[in-house]
Specification:
RNA-binding; NAC_A/B_dom_sf; transport; 5 helices; protein transport; alpha+beta; three-stranded antiparallel sheet; RNA binding; 2 domains
Amino acid sequence: MFGGGGGLNPRKMKQMMNQMGIDLEEIDAEEVVIRTADEELVFDDAEVQLMDAQGQQTYQVVGEPESRERGDSGSEDDSETESGGEFSEDDVEIVAQRAGVSESTARETLEETGDLAAAVQKLE
């Protein structure tokens, strides 16, 4: 597809990516967790790369995940919103930074919505 030969020279590949406006960054991640309705996929010591292509960020995770069951996913979400304080300071900080609001506003919105993405979307 990219022509004959044994592959691209890494320097040439980097030059081509720069010309296309693509930045690649290694992230020193200790752990990556992907939560679904039924399970959590936990990557310990995963290789994570952030690719920024003209403002669109894509994360690539390479590693072997450990699968854990989540249990009652519906009641877990309800308890987070009712009890408050179930969100870590990192969660609150992420919402505050993404939405450009104070941490107290971010915390209140997290408690209302029960979800990071929904909180950011509501505040934007």
